[in-house]
Amino acid sequence: MEITSINTEILSKMFLAGAKNLDAKKEWINELNVFPVPDGDTGTNMSMTIMSAAREVSNLTNPSMKELSKAISSGSLRGARGNSGVILSQLFRGFTKEIKGKETAPAGEQTLVTYQTAENSEYGEIVLSINRCSKVVKGGRNFSFGALVVVGDKNGKVGYGYGKANEVSDAIRKGGKGLEAAKKNMISVPRRGLTVPHSVTAKYSGSSVLIRPASEGTGMIAGGTMRAVLSLAGVVDVLTKSLGSSNPSNVVKATFKAIKMMQSKEQVLEKLGKI
């Protein structure tokens, strides 16, 4: 019998089966990631991320689609490990964002449409880090979460924001498009075709970054944090280097400082009085 829609019971079973399969194949995935440098924990990080969500899904009894979506999204975000885990959690977040208000989830080609709808929103966003914070109070400890989010339109506009809340999903919403600070931090990125106009270096706290233009077809040679910022800005071909502290907040701020130092050809000519 052809399945045309997926209810919460089927989706829960699918998710738990997928989590179990990923956990069983994590060592095989670890051996796959050898470029540009060997990284032997990709599968482990993805497994820890999805198993965190699987535990929350397993604790639900006859959940609504909204409750199931929250368990998958919050569980994977809370348990995200490494770049691969954060990326995986964002895939789940984008999917559950589209289905949480429905009684059933789409099946077949409609599932692809759901993913594309989430992907093709006005602004893309990437969660760079999620930190758990604790505050000692008279009755014990209060825990909260902080999320560093980069937002961009992939067409020359990019910004970042930091949100803090008692729930991971709320922290991300506060750190992403819904946060006024993120919108205020939106800046224009000078580009020359699909690359940056010239080389630039910048430093913030213990982090230093170098951004250089690259020829067409080079692709993006960049680490996770700088890659997120530049890709959401619409840069395709670029060479980068990050030195010193790898703290995501410092690297983001150093990258934005470097971007602000860039000037387009028109801006240079205008300063020279030739326009």
Question: How would you explain this protein's 3D organization?
Answer:
By secondary structure, this protein is α+β, with helices and mostly antiparallel strands. The protein has 3 domains: 115 residues, no CATH class; 64 residues, Double Stranded RNA Binding Domain; 77 residues, Ribosomal Protein S5, domain 2. Helices cover 46% and strands 23% of the residues. It is built from 11 helices and 10 strands. The strands form 3 sheets. A 4-stranded antiparallel beta sheet has the order 3-4-5-6. A 4-stranded mixed beta sheet has the order 7-8-10-9. β4 and β5 form a beta hairpin. The protein is elongated and about 70 Å long. The termini are far apart. About 3% of the residues have low confidence.
Overview features:
Double Stranded RNA Binding Domain; alpha+beta; 11 helices; 4-stranded mixed beta sheet; 4-stranded antiparallel beta sheet; elongated; Ribosomal Protein S5, domain 2; single chain; 3 domains; 275 residues
Number of strands: 10
Fraction in beta strands = 15-25%
What's the shape?
Answer: elongated
Order of helices and strands: EHHHHHEHEEEHHEEEEHEHH
Structural class, from helix and strand content?
A: alpha+beta
Rg from C-alpha positions? 21 Å
Helical percent range?
40-55%
Name the strands of the widest sheet in spatial order: 3-4-5-6
Largest sheet, in brief, is: 4 strands, antiparallel
The first-to-last residue Cα distance is 69 Å
Total tally of structural domains? 3
Number of helices: 11
> Are there runs of 5+ residues with pLDDT below 50, and where?
112-120
Mean pLDDT: 81
